[in-house]
Design goal:
four-stranded parallel β-sheet, alpha/beta, five-stranded parallel β-sheet, disordered N terminus, Rossmann fold, single chain, globular
Length: 376
């Protein structure tokens, strides 16, 4: 495990850790909503640098993890249709549905392919006009512009054998859902810098004002995160609830205007079902009426889905910040990256995968220096 003196600027990290300790007078609970931030926090042991009583919860910040089981089952059903080439990002291939995964469907003969971009799937449609090419469009606002670009190009070029199973989700409504929950204990948020690079942070300002919680747009490096935590706690200690932009080297108030305009052209906002959070109003993107002919749900409207079955995976509790992965009885035994029970262990951004990779390693290293020794 990396500790503070292994950071790119260890002195700055020590100063931030000391500054956080100086201003903290009571317990606070913060949540990051970004899988990349979660992995950075655990990899570098940032949560162990914080004063006693300051807790970091890991929210629904992994796009693969929040994709609902129903969406995965629908993807598998479409992938097994005759003549279909089903394209997806790599992590989604191993996410369990009710009975199997896309990788399991591939092992039984479905033509399932990993791609790096929806434009790769569009290229397949151009090269194979006799096949129906379907792309599983998942992710937060970060990946939506590339999906929108693929749809716009498909329309421009008159490509008819290309469609999308859209499961894009939006972050601000998820924050509102978490804060509205009766058992909410989150007092401040670290917002995902890459999402805000695309969308800006204007939409977070009403949330901070309505729920009286500070929201700090934060990057992914250890120093970014420590500074974001410092800014969030300082607001809490001073009784303020504002949106601050720690990641100013990349994020602007209104984000990337061209990307936002493309999203608004191709998509319309709609309800979306999140794994662990249920249906959240206005939290998803669907194809606008002009582009509805590229919707795989329309093309494959008659496919059936398997009945749901119970699963001991507690991914929903983890995504809501109610439990940590090591609280799951199956963690590291019946559920591992090689044999995952749920999406949070599959994804490279999932909280369970981060705990498995970094916390189990730390527990197996008795000679690892303590935080007090490292920060000395």
């Amino acid at each position: 495990m990396k500790y503070v003196d292994e950071f790119r600027d260890g002195d700055a990290a020590r100063r931030y850790a000391a500054a956080i300790a100086r201003i903290t007078t009571r317990p606070w609970t913060l949540m990051e909503i970004c899988g990349g931030q979660t992995h950075s926090i655990l990899r570098h042991g940032l949560d162990r640098l914080l004063p006693e009583g300051v807790a970091l919860l890991h929210g629904p910040g992994c796009p693969v993890c929040v994709t609902s089981e129903e969406a995965v089952d629908r993807a598998i059903a479409i992938a097994t249709e005759p003549g279909v080439v089903f394209c997806s990002f790599g992590d989604m291939l191993r996410v369990p549905g009710t009975n199997t995964s896309l990788l399991g469907a591939k092992s039984r003969g479905a033509d399932v392919r990993m791609v790096y971009s929806p434009l790769d799937a569009l290229d397949l449609a151009r090269r194979h006009p006799d096949r129906e090419i379907v792309f599983f469009a998942i992710g937060f606002e970060t990946t939506a512009p590339a999906t929108a670009m693929a749809v716009a190009q498909a329309e421009r070029d008159g490509i008819r054998n290309f469609s999308l199973l859209v499961s894009h989700v939006l972050v601000p409504p998820a924050i509102a859902a978490l804060l509205s929950a009766p058992d909410n204990r989150v007092q401040g948020f670290l917002a995902a810098g890459h999402v805000c690079t695309v969308m800006g942070y204007r939409d977070y300002q009403p949330l901070a004002a309505r729920y009286q919680v500070p929201i700090v747009v934060t990057g992914f490096e250890p120093l970014d995160l420590l500074q974001g935590i410092y800014l969030c706690i300082r607001q809490l200690e001073e009784g303020r609830a504002e949106v601050q932009n720690q990641y100013s080297r990349s994020v602007r108030l209104d984000g990337n205007r061209a990307a936002r305009e493309l999203i608004a052209l191709v998509f319309t906002v709609q309800p979306q079902h999140w794994r662990g959070l249920g249906e959240i109003a206005e939290s998803g993107l669907g194809l606008a009426p002009r582009y509805r002919r590229f919707d795989a749900l329309t093309r494959f409207a008659k496919i059936g889905l398997p009945p749901t079955s119970p699963n001991e995976c507690i991914a929903g509790e983890i995504l809501r910040g109610r439990k940590t992965p090591d609280a799951c009885p199956a963690f590291g035994t019946r559920c591992t990256p090689e044999r995952p029970l749920g999406a949070t262990m599959v994804s490279s951004e999932g909280a369970c995968a981060a705990y498995y990779r970094y916390r189990r390693r730390a527990a197996a290293e008795p000679t690892t220096p303590s935080i007090s020794e490292t920060c000395r």
